[in-house]
Amino acid sequence: MTRTTLALLAATFYLTGCGGGSGDSDHAEVDIPQDDVINPFEPVPSPSEAPPSEPITPTLPPAEEEDEEEEPEPEPEPEPEPDVPPENEGDARVVVSDPTDTDCTGLINLALDLYGLPTDRENTASIEGGSIDTASLEWAGIETTVVFEFKQTFDGCRATYIYGGPVIQVPAIVPVVVIPEPDPRPQPQPEPIPDPEPQPEPIPEPEPLPQPEPEPQPSQTDDYNCSDFDTQAEAQRVFEASRPGDPHRLDRDNDGVACESLP
Predict the structure, then answer these.
(1) Cα–Cα distance measured from residue 227 to residue 261, given in angstroms and rounded to the nearest whole number
(2) pLDDT tens-digit map of 170-191
(3) How far apart are CA 138 and CA 162, in angstroms?
(4) What is the pTM for the complete model shown?
(5) Are 124 and 132 in contact (CB under 8 A)?
(6) Between vectors from CA 148 to CA 143 and to CA 153, what angle results, nearest 5°?
(7) CA distance 97 to 244
(8) Is the distance from CB of 101 to CB of 156 less than 8 angstroms?
(9) Of 11, 68, 1, residue with least CA distance to 33
(10) Does residue 85 surpass a pLDDT of 50?
(11) What is the pLDDT of residue 52?
């Protein structure tokens, strides 16, 4: 029995009881089961009200499936180019020289010992039509290319690392330096040259004393008299210069003294 049916029965029961309270009523008594307890405080729905119906969830039309866009196929990646070591330039270009290697055989043999057999070798001439003086050796396994040159512009051989080499941590060739062994025989030592003995300083020669000017000698043709002299000494010098003899007759008494009267 639903709750609505019980409510209608309860309303009929109360209306019957209020109608005269006697059993003469035309309405028959309604037996209410005792097990159904009615809450008098519960609102009784109107008979005209329809029982609440369960909410209806509106159904939407199925959404049209959108056409899935086809994803473009990825373009194939280009094949990687083979790794080529960069060309050495400027300070990266290592040059090894050996002035004693006249035809580069020494440096080439050192490179073969260090790197093994090359994968490619090309011999050329620096002057068209001239003799071969350049060899380019390539070692693909270590990505290294070295050019060996021996020319007239420099002495010996010169090896230049064009690709790779020390730039990519590949050790460079090192020319062998031959150090001459010392001669075990004793070398004669030159005798020391003694220092020259000090020479005495030359004594300067004394300057010559000024000589008095010679008096004019009387010639044999001049004739002197004692009156021509101021002193007896002057007359005596002329007398001595005129000897032997006394051509001027200055010694009258022939005692060897001329012009005795002069002072």
Answers:
(1) 10
(2) 999 998 877 777 777 887 888 8
(3) 10
(4) 0.39
(5) yes
(6) 145
(7) 105
(8) yes
(9) 1
(10) yes
(11) 59
